[in-house]
Design brief:
Elements lengths: L1 H31 L11 H13 L14 H24 L9 H25 L11 E7 L1 H12 L6 E8 L8 E2 L2 E6 L3 H10 L6 E4 L6 H14 L2 E4 L3 H4 L28 H8 L3 E5 L4 H12 L4 E6 L2 H14 L5 E5 L5 H11 L3 E4 L6 H6 L1 H21 L4 E7 L8 H23 L4 E7 L1 E2 L6 H10 L4 E3 L5 E2 L1 E2 L1 H16 L12 E4 L5 E2 H11 L10 E3 L19 E3 L5 E4 L6 H16 L3 H11 L11 H5 L1
Helix pairs in contact: 1-2, 1-4, 2-3, 3-4, 9-17, 10-17, 12-14, 14-15, 14-19, 15-19, 16-18, 19-20
Length: about 625
C-alpha cells in the first residue's frame, strides 16, 4: 500500500512537471517574439514536456518532495531547466524550425525555471507559514534558549501545532554575535550570558515569560546551571523541547510536547572517548562473570559487556528479583549472548569457589558490595563480610580458576574513611593491590585492577531517587547538611571508564604507578553540593525551592562526612594519558599480612564479635576515623 501511494505521488509529480514545461513553450515564444504565433507548430508544446522530463531523469526531478523543497532541490530545478532548454532547442533545430529570437534558449530556460521553481517554493511556504490565527490568549508565554538552528526547527514545528499552546517572547542564543537579529519574526534578545539582563528587561515591560524552553539538547553543565539559577530567581518554569531529529521528522505528531529537563543535564561532563575496539578485543568470545549483576553498577556492566559479544556471560547476585530483571532485559536486548544466572553470596567462600571452578571465567567484574553507609553502620559485620572478606573470596577463586583479570569496583568513601563501609572497601583495595603487585612482579597470574569513583546518578539508595520520591509526595526534601558535597557521574559513563581501565590493565599499558598496584580513579569533575542538587530538582519539577517545596536539614548520619575525597594525601593523582582516567600513587601493604588479617576479620564476623572486628579494621587502616554517630563528620571537614 505504501509503495502504491509513493508511485502515485511520483506520477502526479511527472504530470505537473510535464504540464508546466508544456505551458512554458508558448510563454517563452511570446516573450521572445510577441508578434509571432506562440502555439505554432503545436507539436512543439508536448515536445517541451518530453524534453524536460528526459532532462530531469539524471537529476531525479520528479522524485522531489515539494513539501521539503530546499536550496538543493532548487539547484536540481535549475539544472533540469537548463538541460531541458538545450534538448528542446536541439530537437526543434534538427526539425528545421527557426528560433523566434537568438536569445530564445536562455528565455526558455528561465521560463522553465520560473514555472517549475515557483510552485515548489510557494507550496513549501504555504506548508511552513505560521497559522493565520493568533495564539490563544491562554497560551503559555515562553522564552527559547539555545542555538538559532535548533530554535528555527522548534519554531517551524510550533507553527504546525494547531493548539497554538505557546507564545514565544524571544530567544536567548548560544552566541553573543546574534543579538538583535530575528528568526521567523522572533527577536534574539541576547546570549546565554545575558539571561539576567534580558529577564529584567522583559519584567519591566510586563512581558516576563512563564517558561524557559531549552531547544538545544547539548546545552548542559555549568551553562545550563547558570540559566536555571536565573529561572529560579525570576520564578520561571523550565522545560526541554523535543530533540531536533524528532522535530524534523515528517511523520511526527503535529503537537509540540515539552518535557522536563533531566538532572543528568546538570553535570558539566563532556563525552569522554573510549577505546571500544580494545573493549571488544578484551571481551569478545571470552567467559565473563559479573558479581552483583542485579545492582546499579553490576547491571550496567552486564549490559555493556553483553554488547561486545562474550562467549558466556555469567550473572551472579544474591538477590533473586534483581537478578531476574537484568537477565530478562538481556534476553530481550542481546538474545544471542549465552548467559548463566547464578544466585550466590560472595560471603559464602565454598559456593564462590565451586562457581568459579565450574565456569572458569576469564574476566571477572566484581561489583557485589554493601554500599549504603548508614545501613552498613547498623550492620558492620555484614558489611565487612561482604566488602572485605567477600572480595577476597572472589579474587582467590578467580585466581585459582586461571582468570586473566579481575576488576574491583571501589568507592571514594575508601579514602580517609569515616565509615565501616568505606574502611571495608579500602581493605578490599589493599588486598587486590597486593595480588596485582605479585602478578606484575612474577609476570604470571591474574591481573587485579582496582577502579575507584564517586556516586552515580540514580543508583539504588542514592539521593536522586530519594528526592524524586519526596517530590512526588509534595516534600519536604531532606538534606543532611547545608555543606554536604558529593562527586557524581552517570552510570553509563562510569561503567564505560571501568571497561577502559580493564583494557589498559590487561594489555599491560605503560602507566605511572601501574607496576606498583596503582589504583585507577575516574575523573569525576567538580563535586556537587547536595542542597544545590535538591534545589535544581525542585526547579526542574516546575516549582520553587522553599516556596512550593521545603528543604529540611536532618544532620549527618553515622559514618558520613561532609566532603568525599578521591585521593589520599599520600597517593597524589597521576595522569594516565587517557581521558577520564587518573591513577592514585599506591599505598601498599604486604599481601601476606593483609591476607592473615582478613582471615582474623572474617573469623570475628562469623563469631559476631563486633568490637574485635572494628579493632582489627582500625589496625589495618590507620587513617580510619570512625564517625560512629555522625557528630564527628563536620568537625573532621
Amino acid at each position: 500500500m505504501a509503495a502504491t501511494r509513493s508511485l502515485i505521488r511520483i506520477a502526479v509529480n511527472v504530470a505537473f512537471d510535464g504540464a508546466l514545461a508544456a505551458l512554458s513553450v508558448p510563454v517563452a515564444r511570446w516573450l521572445a517574439d510577441p508578434a509571432a504565433h506562440a502555439f505554432v507548430p503545436f507539436w512543439t508544446i508536448p515536445l517541451g514536456a518530453l524534453t524536460l522530463l528526459l532532462a530531469g531523469i539524471p537529476f531525479r526531478l520528479s522524485l522531489q518532495y515539494w513539501r521539503f523543497a530546499a536550496i538543493g532541490d532548487l539547484l536540481t530545478v535549475v539544472a533540469s531547466a537548463a538541460l531541458g532548454a538545450v534538448l528542446f532547442t536541439g530537437a526543434t533545430t534538427l526539425a528545421g524550425i527557426a528560433q523566434p529570437n537568438p536569445a530564445f534558449p536562455a528565455i526558455y530556460a528561465l521560463t522553465l525555471l520560473l514555472a517549475l521553481g515557483a510552485p515548489r517554493v510557494a507550496y513549501r511556504w504555504r506548508r511552513d507559514r505560521p497559522a493565520a490565527k493568533s495564539p490563544h490568549l491562554d497560551a503559555a508565554s515562553t522564552l527559547l534558549v539555545g542555538s538559532i538552528e535548533d530554535a528555527d526547527l522548534f519554531l517551524r514545528a510550533l507553527s504546525q501545532d494547531r493548539r497554538q499552546a505557546f507564545r514565544v517572547e524571544g530567544l536567548l542564543a548560544s552566541s553573543d554575535r546574534q543579538t538583535g537579529r530575528r528568526i521567523q519574526g522572533h527577536r534574539i534578545l541576547g546570549s546565554l550570558n545575558d539571561a539576567a539582563a534580558v529577564l529584567d528587561q522583559l519584567r519591566s515591560q510586563d512581558r516576563l515569560p512563564g517558561t524557559l524552553v531549552f531547544v538545544t539538547p547539548e546545552l548542559s553543565g555549568a551553562r545550563l546551571a547558570r540559566v536555571l539559577a536565573q529561572a529560579d530567581r525570576f520564578g520561571l518554569q523550565v522545560r526541554q523541547a523535543p530533540r531536533p531529529t524528532a522535530l524534523a521528522d515528517p511523520d511526527r505528531s503535529r503537537s509540540v510536547e515539552l518535557r522536563p529537563v533531566v538532572i543528568e543535564d546538570l553535570l558539566n561532563r563532556a563525552q569522554v572517548p573510549v577505546d571500544r575496539d580494545g573493549m571488544a578485543r578484551l571481551i569478545q568470545g571470552r567467559r565473563v562473570i559479573v558479581t552483583g549483576a542485579g545492582g546499579t553498577i553490576g547491571s550496567e556492566l552486564a549490559r555493556q559487556v553483553a554488547a561486545f559479544g562474550p562467549g558466556t556471560l555469567i550473572l551472579l547476585d544474591n538477590g533473586e528479583y534483581a537478578l531476574w530483571q537484568i537477565d530478562l532485559e538481556l534476553a530481550e536486548t542481546h538474545p544471542q549472548v549465552h548467559r548463566r544466572t547464578l544466585i550466590a553470596d560472595v560471603r559464602d567462600q565454598a559456593r564462590i569457589r565451586a562457581v568459579f571452578e565450574e565456569y572458569r571465567p576469564e574476566l571477572v567484574f566484581h561489583a557485589a558490595a554493601l554500599k549504603h553507609v548508614p545501613m552498613v553502620e547498623a550492620n558492620p559485620l555484614e558489611g565487612l563480610a561482604t566488602n572485605a572478606a567477600g572480595t577476597r573470596h572472589v579474587a582467590d577463586a578467580a585466581r585459582a580458576a586461571g582468570a586473566l583479570a579481575m576488576v574491583l569496583i571501589s568507592t571514594d568513601k575508601a579514602v580517609n574513611p569515616t565509615s565501616v563501609m568505606g574502611a571495608s572497601k579500602r581493605l578490599a583495595e589493599m588486598y587486590c593491590q597486593g595480588l596485582d603487585i605479585a602478578a606484575r612482579t612474577t609476570h604470571h597470574g591474574m591481573r587485579c585492577i582496582t577502579v575507584r569513583f564517586g556516586n552515580v546518578l540514580g543508583s539504588t539508595g542514592s539521593v536522586v531517587p530519594l528526592f524524586q520520591r519526596q517530590l512526588a509526595r509534595g516534600g519536604p526534601l531532606t538534606v543532611t547538611h547545608p555543606d554536604m558535597q558529593r562527586y557524581f557521574m552517570t552510570v553509563r559513563e562510569a561503567v564505560g571508564l571501568v571497561l577502559q581501565a580493564g583494557v589498559l590493565g590487561v594489555n599491560g599499558a605503560s602507566l605511572p604507578s601501574g607496576e606498583d598496584g596503582g589504583i585507577f580513579v575516574l575523573d569525576m569533575g567538580e563535586p556537587v553540593k547536595i542542597v544545590d542538587l535538591a534545589r535544581q530538582m525542585i526547579r526542574l519539577a516546575g516549582m520553587q525551592p522553599d516556596h512550593d517545596i521545603e528543604i529540611r536539614f536532618t544532620g549527618l548520619r553515622p559514618g558520613e562526612k561532609l566532603f568525599e575525597e578521591l585521593f589520599h594525601g599520600k597517593e597524589p593523582p597521576v595522569p594516565t594519558g587517557y581521558a577520564g582516567l587518573l591513577m592514585a600513587s599506591p599505598r601498599t601493604a604486604d599481601p601476606a599480612i593483609v591476607a592473615r588479617a582478613l582471615e582474623e576479620l572474617e573469623s570475628a564476623c562469623r563469631g559476631g564479635q563486633v568490637k574485635l572486628a572494628l579493632t582489627l579494621l582500625g589496625r589495618l587502616i590507620p587513617e580510619f576515623e570512625h564517625n560512629i554517630d555522625g557528630s564527628a563528620g563536620e568537625i573532621r571537614a
